[in-house]
Amino acid sequence: MHRILVADDEPEILKILEEFLNKMGFDVVTALGGEKAIEILKSDIKIDLAVLDMKMPYIKGMDVLREMKKINKEIPIIILTGSIEIKKYLDSLRELEYTENDVCYKPVDLYELLSMVKKKLGLETN
Amino acid sequence: MEKAKETEETKPREQKFAAAADVMIEAMVDAVAVCDFEGRIIQANKAWVELLGFKSADEAIGIKWIDYVAKREVPKSLESFKEILEKGILKNLESVIVRLDGSEVPVLLNAILLKGPSGEIAGSIAVIRDITELKKAYVDISERKKAEEALRASEIRNRTLLENLPQKIFLKDRNSVYISCNENYARDLKIKPEEIAGKTDFEFYPKELAEKYRADDKRIMESEEIEDIEEKYIQDGKERFVYTVKAPVRNEQGDVTGILGIFWNITERKRIEEALRESENRYRLLADNVTDVIFITDLNLRFTYVSPSVISMLGYSAEEVVLKRLEEFLAPSSVEVAKKALGEEMGIENNQGKGFFRSRVLELEIISKDGSSKWAEVKTTFLRDSNERPTSILGICRDLTERMEAEAALIQTNERLQYLLSSTSAVIYTSKISGDYGVTYITGNVRQITGYEPREFTENSSFWIEHVHPEDRPWILEELPRIFEQGSHIYEYRFLHKNGTYRWMRDEMRLERDREGKPLETAGIWIDITERKLTEEKIRHAAEEWRTTFDSITDMVSIHDRNFKIIRVNKAYANFLKKRPQEVIGMTCYELFHGSKEHHPYCPHIQTIQTKKPTTAEFFDSYIGVYLEVFCSPIFDEKGEVIATVHIARDITLRKGMEKTQRLTQLGKLVADMAHEVNNPLMVISGRAQLSLMEQIQNEVIKNNLKIIFEECQRARDIIQRLLSFSRPSKGELKEININRSIETVVGVVEHQFKLAGTEIKRNYIEKPLPIIADEKQIQEVVMNLLNNAKDAMSKGGVIEIVTSSEKDFLRIDFKDTGSGISEEDTKRMFEPFFTTKKEGTGLGLSLCYGIVKAHGGDIKIESKLGKGTTVTVLLPVKEVLGNA
Which residue of B has its CA nearest to A20? Predict the structure, then answer.
């Protein structure tokens, strides 16, 4: 069973994503905020994929991504954002070897997210 | 003269009297001689000397009087002399004397014996009268008695005698009854001579006159004295004056028996005398009344007459002056002047061709009675006797004090003027009129102005021209001769100051001519005008600066009179209108800018004139197609009325566009910030709806509601996405693109869908379009938006024509639809965010396009007509332009 890390500073969003992904057969670890996410990533918990909100208080999505690169975790990532502001970060994302295709806009169609997850995990090609 | 006065004062009284007697004797008409006891003449008067024919009295002295008597008369005379010794007096002895030249003169002799204090005979005084005339009257009348007898004896003889005389002669008896008269008198009386006998004066003359004649006759006959009478006489009814000599007529016994009269007309003489007296009176009256003092002195400068006006001049009365010496009322220096003048004049008298009426004017200082002195002008001339020898001096004396004071004041004024001149900067000079125009005179203040001494100018005749600035020298020398035509000229030139600097001088010169009009010299005024020149320079500079500034202002500056007419504009103003400044002067701003014949109702010019305060206005002028900001300020006259306004206008079209962009950018940022906040709750709603749908929901209504909730959340997301995207043009995706190809990509995507909706797309592309540098995706977004708008405008289908063309430095893309069109009002608002005419529109499409096109340095415009369609034009700069930018 694949384990997915979901990080957001909105508890309600974490709950929805956890509930949906569980139903869809994934193990879900939630992190309320960037710090929490980094803490989990640094731990021994095995993470197969991360869904990160880009705009979080304290440690922002981009910082989390940089931290992940630091701890050398080659984990597939889906960037979830409520803002088109992400375009500002496209250059930074590219530096970290991510593209616009890794971005998912809120409010996301859960099934669209699911297909992205499966695609990243190589579970199905649709 | 002084000496004479002294002796006169010291003489004893007797001598004084004697002197007076001398004078009297001298003045007598009869010849008088004083003889010593031997009958020798010791003194003779003028008449004696003349009668005897001597040249002077001296010649007559020392001769015995008897030696003058004709020899045949000597015995009678000696007989008479005895009579004198006896009686002490000799009366009326007829005798004849012999003049020096041998001629005989009949005389009547009277003499008195002079006795000494003790009664001894001291001498005698003889008085003789020439009776030649009287003798003539009687023809041969050497013997007077014989004549008388003859007269009485023969009337005929008498008449013969009488008729031959030019005088009028008559003979009356004791009762004044005419006995006879001569022809001459009878003629006057208009009778024959023989008719006179028995008549009286009452028959010929008015009663008064006749009575007077009778009274005279009576008196003479009683006194037995001959009388000379000047009296009235009537001839031809006219009043005449006659000179009458009446003598009593005696018989042999010596009794008076009648009267003899002889008279002649003296009317003419009388008239002359009368006129003379009148004129004398007149002159005296004049002399007495004039303020000038008129005087007469003798040749010793002793006053004989002084007019009464002297009292006001000197304080002395005329009588006082006559008794005074010249020195008493003339300052010593003036006495000298007067004496010297007299000496000179007397000298001139000896010259040939001297003027008899010449006069001489002296200025003399006279001393008043009160001791004060005043100046008088004295005009003198000689009075002459019949031989034209000077006898006295006539003078007219005028008080000069006032004139002298005026002259003194004038001198003072001149000094003051001199002072003023030397204390001001005006130098006065005279100079030659040829050659080097050398200075001949120059005032001392030239020192202050040029640093040079006046003599430096006058001693070196080329001093002036050598110090004129070398640049000014040629033209001055060229122009100087023009003074002969013009008479005067003004130059301004630079002159080298002694301190080495050049001073600006104003030279105002005038040509002076002599009486014949020949040029003499130039006289001029020389003023240092350096300060003025500097000020002028500053003013000119300031004006230049102002003009340059005025023209350098990129805003359009114009000055308008109250009627909007342009008085002045700067370059920017003219350039904006693509005209020359002088072409717009006199035109109005509303003609030029609004293309109208009337001013705009909200014109700031009107408001400024009304309120007298600066006004600003901002408006879009559709005539010239620009946004203008106009700042209007009043210009006041001295009364505080607005006479003109200054307009500063600025084309703010660009700023307006920027403002719009800025507004949109700000809005975009707001939206971006908001989007995140909104999207999270939307995410929750959308997610919950999807999760709910995963449950086994039997109720279809609920199921459908959840679907709608989810879909609307997705739509909200799209709206927000679009809102965000137009405000964020990408910078990273710029590349060279072929506009035709970019458009075609979009058209390819939508064409099928459009066809289904009944919309046909026509392409009208330019061949080989110039490349543009752009974010292709954004440009395609613009194309997509504009195509969608066009399609939406044609709800019943239609044609969209895409035209690409080249316009100057821009590439032009027109999207023409055949849709419903947009109202003019809406057109203006089309680019505003959220403005939409569509039910389903977000109102962001065109705003997005506007933002993208402007960000690319291009422009976007809409032209539309309701019911006919709309054309949206996009202009994008071609590569070269961008590259240069």
Answer: B691
Q: Which of A3, A13, A8, A4 lies closest to A110, judged by CA?
A: A13
Contacts of B401-407 spanning 24+ positions with Cβ under 8 A: B401/B374, B401/B375, B403/B375, B403/B377, B404/B375
Rounded-to-integer distance, Cα B128 and Cα B98, Å? 13
Please check whether residues B299 and B386 belong to one and the same domain.
yes
Spatial contact of A63 and A54, defined as CB atoms under 8 Å apart:
no
Q: Which domain holds residue A21?
A: 3-121
What tokens does B209 get? 């006159």
Residues of chain A contacting B677 with CB distance shorter than 8 Å: 82
Q: Which helix (H) or strand (E) is B777 found in, with range?
A: helix B776-793
Q: What is the predicted pLDDT for the residue at B163?
A: 54
Q: What is the pLDDT of residues B706-718, one digit of tens each?
A: 999 998 888 888 7
Residue entry with tokens 């977004």: B781
* Span B361-385, average pLDDT: 82
Given this model, what pLDDT does residue B38 score? 78
- Global ipTM: 0.90
Do B675 and A84 lie within an 8 Å CB cutoff? Answer: yes
- One domain, residues B733 and B840: yes
Mark whether B712 and B739 lie in a shared domain. Answer: no
Structural domains of chain B, count: 7
Residue B251 has pLDDT above 60, yes or no: yes
- CB-CB contact of B294 with B395 (8 Å): yes
Residues of B in contact with A13 (CB under 8 A): 680, 683-684, 687
The reply to whether the predicted model has a pTM over 0.90 is no
Contacts of B688 in chain A (CB under 8 A): 16
User: What confidence score (pLDDT) does residue B438 get?
Assistant: 84
* Alpha-carbon Rg for chain B in angstroms: 70
Continuous segment of H or E residues that includes residue B375:
strand B373-384
The yes-or-no verdict on residue B497 having pLDDT over 90 is: yes
B263: which 2 tokens? 């008279």
CA distance A69 to chain B (A): 25
d(CA A20, CA A31): 16
Q: How far is residue B583's CA from residue B28's CA, in Å, rounded to a whole number?
A: 116
Written as one letter, the residue type at A113 is L
Q: What is the DSSP string of chain A?
A: --EEEEEES-HHHHHHHHHHHHHTT-EEEEEESHHHHHHHHHSS---SEEEEES--SSS-HHHHHHHHHHTT----EEEEESSGGGGGGHHHHHHTT--GGGEEESSP-HHHHHHHHHHHHTS---
What are residue A10's phi and psi, to 5 degrees?
Answer: -105, 110
Q: Between vectors from CA B301 to CA B297 and to CA B305, what angle results, nearest 5°?
A: 25
**Domain at A54, CATH number:** 3.40.50.2300
Among A10-19, B364-373, B841-850, name the one with the lowest average pLDDT.
B841-850
Q: Measured between alpha carbons, how far is B540 from B534 in angstroms, rounded to an integer?
A: 10
Whether residues B526 and B592 fall in one domain: no
Average pLDDT over residues B769-795: 85
Instruction: Tell me how far apart the alpha carbons of residues B25 and B309 are, in angstroms, rounded to a whole number.
Output: 36
CA distance A33 to A13: 12
**Domain boundaries, position B494:** 424-535
User: Where residue B298 sits, what CATH number does that domain have?
Assistant: 3.30.450.20
Whether A87 and chain B come into contact, CB under 8 Å, resolves to yes
How many CB atoms within 10 Å of residue B66? 14
User: Which pair of tokens denotes residue B365?
Assistant: 């200082």
Asked if A87's CB is within 8 angstroms of B684's CB, the reply is no
Q: How far apart are CA B793 and CA B787, in angstroms?
A: 10
> What is the secondary structure of B231-285 as a DSSP string?
EEEEETTEEEEEEEEEEEEE-TTS-EEEEEEEEEE-HHHHHHHHHHHHHHHHHHH
Q: What average pLDDT does range B841-852 have in this prediction?
A: 74
Q: Cβ A85–B724 below 8 Å, yes or no?
A: yes
Task: Please report whether residue A126 resides in a domain.
Answer: no
- Same structural domain, B702 and B733: no
